[in-house]
Amino acid sequence: MAKHQPSRRCISCREARHKRDLIRLVRGADGSVAIDPTGKAAGRGAYLCAQQHCWDRALAHRLVDRALKVALDGATRDQFATHAAALPKELAENE
Ligand SMILES: [Zn+2]
After folding, report:
1. Where exactly are the structural domains of the chain?
2. Phi/psi class of residue 14: alpha, beta or left (left: φ > 0; alpha: ψ in -120 to 50)?
3. How far, in Å, is the centroid of ligand 1 from the Cα of 29?
4. Which residues hold their Cβ within 5 A of ligand 1, which is an ion?
5. Of 6, 13, 81, 82, which alpha carbon lies 20 to 30 A from 62's?
6. What is the CATH code of the structural domain delimited by 7-85?
7. Distances, alpha carbon 8 to alpha carbons 46, 49, 60, 75, in Å
C-alpha cells in the first residue's frame, strides 16, 4: 500500500479506496441525498466506488438509505441508477 493517502470505505463492497476512486453522496439538511462531485459538501456523507457493481448493489439492498439514515425517494433512486449506468462496470484494482 502507498503511504498516507486519503482513503474511505465504500458502503457497498466495504473496500477502502483512494477518494478519487469513490463518489460521495451527501445528505442535505432537508433529508434529500445528492451526489457530491466536490466531495466537500456539508452534511452526512457516504461513499460508493465509481463502478456500477457497487451502485447496483447499494440500490438493490438500500445501503445508501441505511448509511445515511434516510429513505431515498423514487426520483433519487432513478437518478442514482442513471448515474451508475454511466460508470465503468468495474474499476481496475491497481494502477
Ligand atoms: Zn465498492
Report:
1. 7-85
2. left
3. 26
4. 10, 12-13, 49, 54
5. 6
6. 3.30.1230.10
7. 9, 10, 22, 27
From CA 19, how far away is CA 21, in angstroms rounded? 5
DSSP assignment letter at 31? S
Q: How far is the CA of 1 from the centre of ligand 1 (A)?
A: 18
Distance CA 32, CA 6 (A): 26
